[in-house]
């Protein structure tokens, strides 16, 4: 998708602050963090929203969860994090390339 900001990151046209890259997902820091750790985990394939998922995307969504787990561990927030996938404008989605937010806080 040529007009998708996250696809431009995957293509290297825009350079995000990358924390993890695998064959299927890219993880980078959110530009407007809402927690001490706030990263976005995106599939490398353009899928607009959760409503566009097909059964064959099950492994890809598992890859997003496993990337979240790995980054949470690396960032020291394994026991203190939240993941969110907003879906649709009224669900709070602003960028229409499916993404998982990982918000984490240091242990108290
Ligand atoms: P959502 O509201 O779930 O669609 O989340 C979109 C997220 O993308 C927001 O938290 C934004 O801060 C973040 N965002 C938008 N543009 C960029 C960018 N260029 N680099 C990093 N994060 C971004
Ligand atoms: Zn895209």
List the helices and strands and how they pair.
Elements: H1 5-11, E1 18-21, E2 25-29, E3 37-43, H2 58-74, E4 81-84, E5 100-104
Bound molecules: adenosine monophosphate and zinc ion.
The site of adenosine monophosphate (AMP) has 11 residues, from loops.
Can you tell me the residue ranges where pLDDT is under 50 for at least 5 consecutive residues? none
Mean pLDDT: 97
Strand elements, count? 5
Order of helices and strands: HEEEHEE
Spatial order of strands in the largest sheet: 1-2-3-5-4
Largest sheet features: 5 strands, antiparallel
> Which range does the strand content fall in?
15-25%
Radius of gyration: 13 Å
**How much helix is in the residues?**
10-25%
Structural class by SSE content: alpha+beta
How many helix segments?
2
Distance from N terminus to C terminus (CA atoms, Å) equals: 42 Å
The small molecules bound here are:
adenosine monophosphate, zinc ion
> What form results from the Cα inertia axes?
globular
Written overview of the protein:
With 108 residues, the protein is an alpha+beta fold. Helices cover 22% and strands 23% of the residues. The chain contains 2 helices and 5 strands, in the order H-E-E-E-H-E-E. The chain has a 5-stranded antiparallel beta sheet, with helices on one face. A hairpin with a 3-residue loop joins strand 1 and strand 2. The protein is globular and about 40 Å long. It starts with a helix and ends with a strand. It binds adenosine monophosphate and zinc ion. The site of adenosine monophosphate has 11 residues, from loops.
């Amino acid at each position: 998708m040529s007009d998708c900001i996250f696809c431009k990151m995957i293509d290297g046209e825009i350079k995000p602050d990358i924390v993890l890259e695998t064959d299927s997902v890219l993880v980078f820091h959110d530009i407007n963090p809402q927690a001490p750790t706030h990263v976005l985990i995106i599939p490398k394939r353009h899928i607009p929203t959760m409503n566009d998922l097909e059964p064959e995307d099950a492994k890809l969504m598992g890859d997003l969860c496993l990337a979240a787990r790995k980054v949470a561990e690396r960032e020291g927030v394994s026991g203190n994090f939240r993941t969110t996938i907003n879906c649709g404008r009224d669900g709070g989605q602003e960028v229409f390339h499916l993404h998982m937010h990982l918000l984490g806080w240091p242990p108290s």
